[in-house]
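Researcher: Please predict.
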Amino acid sequence: MRLEPRSNVAIVHDYLSQRGGAERVVLSLSRLFPSAPIYTSFYAPELTYPEFKDLDVRTSDLQDRVDPDHFRRAVLQLPSAFSAMDLSSYERVLISSSAFAHHVSHPNAGVYCYTPPRFLYDTATYLGSRAKAAAVWLPFEVLRRRDRRAALAKRTYAAISQQSSRRIQHAYHFSGDIIYPPLATAHLPSIPPALPSEPRALVIARLLPYKRVDVAIRACAAIGLGLTIVGEGPEEERLRSLGGGADVTFLGRIDDDELRQLFAQHSLVLIPGIEDFGYAPIEANYAGRPAVAIAAGGSLETIDDGVNGQLVDGWDLDAWAESLTAVLARHWVPEQLRETTQRFHESSFHRSVSDWLDHSLD
């Protein structure tokens, strides 16, 4: 379902250098507002979804000054890059952000927020070290003040989940509507495939400390379950060292065709990190696979324990190993798992976003 835009709209997103859930949301927003240009700090076509090549993507002056493979080194330059953007010719601005896209200046802007910047408001978890967080506390405090001013200047906020709404409240001291993001399905099996005869687990995550991929590696090794990890990040070397003699395969960045095949080849999907929403459980269910996730964050809003997966309290290794064993022993019906994803259809997302903007912006 496509809802035509009712005003002159620009879309703004943090950066286009990844293949993640936020980038899929931006593609969905471009289908809702097909004539809207997409403004971003920098764009690496080879690192994100190919559909962006057919869209009007406009970058900041960071475009030729950022190494896309090490973009986090330039993250402190983003506030100024967005502040410098001139969007005065647009009636409304729709911002998609988990970093600093909300620093653009416009009197009629709405922010669809995945989370306030993690490295500013949950630094120790993001860096995986309290000592590192303490070392950057003072410069980050200056940036936090600037970030809060930028957030307070926006007309309206919407959060992707209750977990995200709580983080917005903690960081900015206000709340907004909750609009669940849409489930993209082009990269998923058209028909839920039968479960493979040989069980194997799948993790799809950026390799960052808060994703807790180490828990998945250790739990799978404890019960002799093979594990495939899709994703890149600064934790990769450390995580590889944890595998030891276990059956762990790191695939790095893959395309949608490869991902579609992986869902068919795996029995379950693991989400050990606390996500603000997290697409992995829903994608797993659409592909006819149960999800095993930590009982916290967005997983509490997407997993009905015992219906489309299983929730695990904390990161205790024995608890994770026990849950994996229980899920593998149960008979799951792929078609029934897919049925649980209906509430995340793109048409529902488009209606919710359109209503939110119409009610909140002039």
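Model: The chain has two domains: 9-182+345-360, 200-343.
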